[in-house]
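Narrative of accomplishments. A recurring question from our advisory board has been how the design workflow behaves on a single, concrete structure rather than in aggregate. To address it, we present the structure tokens for one chain from the evaluation set, followed by the sequence designed for it. No filtering or post-editing was applied between the two.
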């Protein structure tokens, strides 16, 4: 059946259409072209003509002009609009024309760099001397790359620990460095992005040392603040290119909210099965379909259902996720491009720019967590001429339900900001160490835009640096970057060692703060779908010893969190509530754990946890509500109300800050000792903070309105996990509370 007809039949199918909360169609878009730049190097124009490209899309031509006139540039156009070519052309052009010029490409993942270099290799110019430099590069190749490389493709981790600390070996690269390309800029947020900002400062500092001043080019998915993110990571103000000239066939966007099974309890049909049902209709008809699952486990479940339900096509349906071998993945990517694979179930591993061609249908089993991810996953379906469709199947979570009721949030301009916090003191200190190892610091020198005089003095006190001749020099033996991970704020991680069958195999690391909830003795720890039981936790040596196990339960720790306000940085009084942005000390202690049976979720036992409390300095947003909002409620009721409020706020917050729910901690306090009001505290779950609370302080009123909307719009009768939370506290009271907050607030 023709896809348009199939969509028409879905529209007329009452069982389907009654669950659709949004169905929008973006009209077919014609391509807009610009001629190939006349100044383009003949090797490149020949290559383009050979590949059938006789002209450029307008955004590619615009990027070429901006970049060749030495302007920092950020390119924000949809998936499959030819973003890569937009920066490759000007960069390769320069490399071909100027034999001394060099470039560094940064990709967030190894797979992505492998994929992207294929294009450059196809150009077939020996002169380009392209080398991938990452953890997999053999040492013989590394030497050649350092000596002869002109275009180095790497990732931020390798730049940080392999290239920058060894800059004297990379003289040629730094001498001629003309371009730095940062692909998928929006993926650098939180801790990783905060580190990257300093890594780029270090890179520019070294480039300056060798008298180079490279241009920075980035690509990004659609977020609210691509220019701002570019500036906070690079310190530069870029040209923004965001009008795509690429063509697009007609595209349907559908939001599908699974029907209620129990409206009173607010329980809907599960997102996994419902996604399988929808996917089946398209795959059976022969449409190439990608299903995005929210976890590796769900990927496997959806895959096995689809294979079972569509026996005739079972060999054309594959799974794709981290943990599959690289050659398996390559085979699947090829199969998708060539059309021999009809269905693929993937985690967000296929969300980033790996080239698999355009699919007919993209189905998201649950909101992928951010608008940027939504557009990238939706963008996996899309044909230049023919019709395609993207369907979001929403889950029970408050965030998913908010989106089902507010499709404009997804479809219109993205409201979410990618946030970083280069001022995070833990990150800054670590990065100053790395930079000082690379080149000594002058007394008044900054790192990027950050003032670091205090940090330098502190490191001198600690005998990490010594001052001589007006400069701070590195004086430790060790080499700092090796022990500093860009993916965490605090270098103290705990190592997990698998002792199964008398072995000793390191299977992973966990940040210290998570140990009390994940790795207490007898905890079931799940890693790559394998279960382990923690047999011994050596807190002093920072090692957890585990053994493989097969039990039918998982463990869930109960923690007590106590938050102490150290210092207020900002405050406002909105009459109905007072709000503070503060430095806080979060003290967490795990007291006991429950054993919970898989499937039925029944409680099948418990045990004690004997671990010292952990402490973390971070940033917090404190909302202290006026007593009158709780008028007449018993203590117990007030407590439950506060829990519902914080549940809603925590779950709604990712609408405005691009982050995982787990990055935001919450706590309630009936009478917060410092501000003496019933309070909800939202805090950054990373030492030093990553900018979440700061942003939430700015948008607190919007956040409260969104929470109010969620609870008043929820279709359940008495309160459910999608609105007031798993405790199902009195919905009317929660609703009234938020209405009162909003009507009584003044700004
Ligand atoms: Zn509800």
């Amino acid at each position: 059946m023709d896809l348009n007809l199939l969509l028409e039949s879905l529209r007329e199918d009452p069982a389907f259409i009654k669950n659709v909360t949004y169905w929008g169609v973006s009209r077919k878009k014609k391509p807009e072209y610009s001629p190939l730049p006349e100044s383009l190097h003949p090797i490149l124009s020949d290559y383009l003509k050979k590949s059938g490209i006789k002209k450029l899309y307008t955004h590619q031509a615009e990027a070429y002009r901006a970049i060749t006139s030495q302007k920092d540039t950020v390119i924000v156009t949809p998936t499959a609009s030819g973003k890569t070519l937009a920066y490759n052309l000007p960069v390769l052009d320069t490399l071909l024309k100027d034999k001394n010029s060099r470039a560094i490409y940064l990709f967030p993942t190894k797979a992505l760099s492998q994929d992207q270099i294929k294009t450059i290799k196809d150009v077939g110019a020996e002169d380009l001397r392209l080398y991938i430099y990452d953890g997999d590069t053999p040492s013989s190749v590394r030497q050649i790359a350092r000596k002869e490389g002109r275009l180095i493709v790497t990732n931020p981790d390798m730049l940080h620990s392999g290239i920058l600390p060894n800059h004297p070996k990379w003289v040629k690269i730094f001498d001629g460095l003309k371009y730095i390309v940062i692909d998928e800029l929006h993926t650098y947020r939180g801790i990783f992005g905060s580190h990257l900002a300093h890594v780029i400062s270090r890179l520019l500092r070294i480039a300056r040392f060798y008298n180079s001043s490279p241009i920075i080019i980035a690509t990004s998915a659609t977020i609210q603040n691509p220019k701002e993110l570019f500036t906070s990571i690079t310190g530069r103000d870029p040209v923004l290119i965001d009008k795509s000239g690429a063509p697009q066939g007609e595209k349907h966007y559908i939001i599908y909210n699974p029907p209620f099974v129990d409206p009173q309890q607010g329980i809907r049909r599960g997102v996994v099965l419902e996604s399988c049902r929808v996917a089946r209709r398209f795959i059976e008809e022969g449409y190439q379909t990608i299903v995005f699952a929210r976890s590796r486990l769900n990927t496997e479940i959806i895959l096995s259902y689809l294979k079972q339900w569509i026996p005739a096509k079972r060999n054309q349906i594959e799974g794709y996720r981290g943990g599959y071998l690289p050659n398996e993945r390559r085979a699947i990517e090829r199969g998708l491009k060539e059309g021999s694979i009809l269905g693929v179930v993937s985690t967000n591993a296929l969300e980033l720019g790996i080239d698999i061609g355009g699919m007919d249908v993209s189905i998201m089993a649950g909101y992928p967590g951010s608008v940027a991810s939504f557009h990238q996953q939706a963008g996996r379906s899309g044909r230049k001429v023919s019709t395609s469709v993207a369907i979001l199947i929403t889950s029970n979570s408050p965030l998913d339900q908010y989106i089902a009721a507010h499709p404009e949030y997804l479809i219109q301009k993205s409201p979410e900001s990618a946030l970083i916090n280069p001022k995070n003191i833990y990150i800054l200190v670590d990065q100053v160490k790395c930079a000082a190892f690379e080149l000594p610091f002058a007394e008044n020198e900054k790192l990027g835009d950050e003032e670091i005089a205090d940090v330098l003095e502190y490191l001198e006190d600690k005998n990490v640096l010594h001052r001589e001749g007006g400069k701070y020099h590195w004086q430790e033996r060790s080499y700092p970057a090796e022990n500093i991970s860009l993916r965490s704020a605090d270098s103290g991680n705990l190592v997990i060692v698998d002792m199964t069958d008398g072995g000793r195999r390191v299977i992973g690391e966990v940040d210290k703060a998570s140990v009390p909830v994940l790795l207490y003795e007898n905890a079931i720890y799940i890693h790559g779908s394998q279960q382990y039981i923690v047999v011994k936790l050596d807190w002093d040596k920072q090692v957890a010893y585990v053994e493989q196990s097969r039990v039918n339960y998982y463990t869930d720790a109960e923690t007590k969190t106590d938050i102490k306000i150290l210092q207020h940085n900002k405050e406002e009084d909105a009459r109905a509530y007072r709000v503070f942005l503060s430095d806080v000390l979060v003290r967490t202690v795990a007291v006991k754990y429950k054993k919970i049976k898989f499937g039925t979720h029944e409680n099948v036992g418990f045990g004690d946890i004997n671990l010292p409390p952990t402490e973390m300095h971070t940033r917090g947003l404190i909302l202290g509500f006026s007593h009158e909002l709780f008028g007449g409620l018993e203590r117990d009721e007030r407590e439950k109300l506060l829990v519902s409020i914080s549940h809603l706020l925590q779950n709604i917050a990712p609408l405005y800050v691009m982050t995982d729910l787990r990055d935001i901690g919450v706590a309630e306090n009936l009478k917060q000792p410092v501000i003496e009001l019933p309070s909800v505290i939202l805090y950054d779950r990373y030492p030093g903070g990553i900018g979440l609370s700061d942003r939430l302080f700015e948008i607190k009123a919007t956040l409260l309105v969104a929470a109010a909307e969620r609870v008043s719009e929820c279709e359940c009768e008495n309160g459910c996990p999608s609105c007031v939370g798993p405790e199902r506290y009195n919905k009317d009271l929660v609703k009234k509370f938020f209405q009162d907050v909003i009507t009584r607030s003044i700004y």
